[in-house]
Design brief:
- By secondary structure, the chain is α/β, with parallel strands linked by helices.
- Strands 5-6-7-3-8-9 form a six-stranded mixed β-sheet, sandwiched between helices. Strands 11-18-17-13-14 form a five-stranded mixed β-sheet. Strands 10-12-16-15 form a four-stranded antiparallel β-sheet, with no helix packed on it.
C-alpha cells in the first residue's frame, strides 16, 4: 500500500526565554539566553492510505505539536515529514478562522488555503453550512460565535472539502452530544470511503474502536506504536500504574526471627513454562516455593492474591481455605502451584503477591508483595476488569 504520511526521525525544539527581554538580549549580545524544550524527539512512523491512525498521550506529551507539523502550520527542527494528498485539519478551537470574517467568508478563506478555486468552494458552500446548522449566523463575524458554534463550523469546513487526509484533534469534545454523534458518523463515512484519518483524543475507547494503529507519545518520545488495541492497553497500564517500585520484595532469609518465608514466585503457562503475557481466557499458573523451618508449628499453607497495577484488588485465596496440601521438596522447603483456568481478566498489568500462613489462614507470616507480574493483552471490546459471560435475549 502507498504511504499517505511518512515521518522519520522527527524532532521539534522550542526556545524558552526567562522573560520578554531575553530574546532581545540574545539578539544584541549573540549569547544564548534561552532553555531548549524538546516537544518531540526522534519520532518515526508511517500511515498507509485509507488507514485510521490514533495518537494518545498525556497533556504536554507533544500530540498537538505533531499534528501541527503534519498540517504544515509548524515546522520540524530536524527529521523528515512527507504528506501525500490534500490535508484538512480540525485542531484547537478557532484554528484557521479569522475572527473578523463571517462564517461564510471563513469557508472561502479555508478553501483557498487548501488550494481550491472559488467555483469549487461555491459548489460545496451550502452543504457545509447545512452540516454546521449555522445558517442564521453564517454571515456574522465568527468572533461572536460560542465555542460550540466554532466547533460546528470548524468540523463542517474540515470535512466539507473532501480531503485525502483528515486530521482531528481533541476539539470534538466541546460540541454537544447530538453534534458529536453527527461528527462521528461523518468520520466513519470517511473511513469507509478509504480516506486517511489521523485521530488524536483522550477518549481511548474511540481510538481503540476507530483506528487500526496508534502512537503513544510520552514526554515527546514514542512510547509505543503499533496495533491500536495494544497501544491503548499499554497507555492505560501506564495511567493506572503507581510510582511504587515493581521490584520483588523477596528476602531469601528474613532476619526478624521468622520460621517461614517465601523463596520465589513465578508465573507460568499451562505447559509449566515461564510466561508474562497472556490473552483473556488463557490458563495462568502461579508457582510459589517457600521455606517452613522445623520450628514452624502446624500445617504449612500459602495464600496468593492478584492486584491490578492501579491498586484494584482482584482476588485472594489460600491453600488452607481450600484444604489443599503443598508439595514437599525436602525437609523444610515446599512448593505450591495455583492454576487459574480460563482467567477472565481483561487487558492490563497484574501483580501477584504471596504469603505464608497457617492452615486456617488466620495468621500471616511472610508477605512477598508484587513478587511477580503478568500482562493480559487482546482485542476484546469489553470494558472493565473481567469478562462476564453473558448472552443477549
Amino acid at each position: 500500500m502507498k504511504s499517505a504520511v511518512e515521518v522519520r526521525q522527527l524532532s521539534k525544539k522550542y526556545k524558552r526565554y526567562p522573560g520578554p527581554r531575553g530574546l532581545l538580549r540574545e539578539w544584541l549580545t549573540g549569547r544564548s539566553s534561552h532553555q531548549a524544550h524538546w516537544a518531540l524527539r526522534e519520532i518515526s512512523f508511517s500511515i498507509q492510505e485509507g488507514e485510521a491512525f490514533g495518537v494518545c498521550g498525556d497533556n504536554g506529551a507533544g500530540k498537538s505539536t505533531l499534528l501541527k507539523i503534519l498540517t504544515g502550520t509548524a515546522f520540524p527542527t530536524s527529521g523528515v515529514v512527507e504528506v501525500s494528498g490534500r490535508v484538512s485539519a480540525l485542531l484547537e478551537l478557532g484554528a484557521g478562522f479569522h475572527p473578523e470574517f463571517s462564517g461564510r467568508e471563513n469557508i472561502y478563506f479555508n478553501g483557498s488555503l487548501m488550494g481550491m478555486r472559488r467555483r469549487e468552494i461555491a459548489e460545496r458552500e451550502e452543504e457545509i453550512i447545512e452540516f454546521s446548522e449555522l445558517s442564521p449566523f453564517i454571515d456574522h463575524p465568527v468572533r461572536t460565535y460560542s465555542s460550540g458554534m466554532y466547533v460546528r463550523l470548524g468540523f463542517a469546513v474540515a470535512t466539507g472539502f473532501d480531503p485525502d487526509i483528515l486530521i482531528i484533534d481533541e476539539a470534538l469534545a466541546v460540541g454537544d452530544q447530538r453534534f458529536q454523534k453527527k461528527c462521528t458518523d461523518r468520520i466513519l463515512d470517511f473511513r469507509r470511503s478509504g480516506k486517511t484519518i489521523v485521530f488524536c483524543s483522550h477518549n481511548l475507547y474511540q481510538i481503540r474502536t476507530l483506528c487500526e494503529r496508534a502512537l503513544w507519545l510520552h514526554e515527546g518520545e514514542a512510547a509505543a506504536c503499533g496495533e491500536a488495541a495494544d497501544v491503548v492497553d499499554r497507555y492505560q497500564d501506564y495511567c493506572r500504574a503507581s510510582e511504587a517500585s515493581l521490584e520483588s520484595v523477596l528476602e531469601p532469609h528474613p532476619s526478624n526471627g521468622q520460621v517461614c518465608w517465601i523463596d520465589s514466585v513465578q508465573v507460568l503457562n499451562d505447559r509449566g513454562r515461564p510466561q508474562d503475557e497472556f490473552r483473556s481466557g488463557d490458563t495462568v499458573v502461579v508457582q510459589i516455593e517457600a521455606t517452613f523451618q522445623n520450628a514452624f508449628r502446624g500445617v504449612p499453607a500459602i495464600a496468593v492474591s492478584l492486584e491490578r497495577n492501579d491498586g484494584i484488588f482482584v482476588y485472594c485465596v489460600s491453600s488452607g481455605m481450600d484444604a489443599a496440601s503443598l508439595q514437599q521438596i525436602d525437609s523444610e522447603r515446599f512448593r505450591a502451584r495455583l492454576a487459574f483456568p480460563e482467567l477472565p481478566l481483561l487487558s492490563g498489568l497484574f501483580h501477584v503477591s504471596a504469603m505464608t500462613t497457617d492452615q486456617d489462614s488466620m495468621q500471616a507470616y511472610d508477605h512477598a508483595a508484587k513478587a511477580a507480574s503478568f500482562r493480559i493483552v487482546g482485542h476484546q471490546p469489553d470494558l472493565g476488569l473481567i469478562h462476564v459471560k453473558h448472552r443477549w435475549e
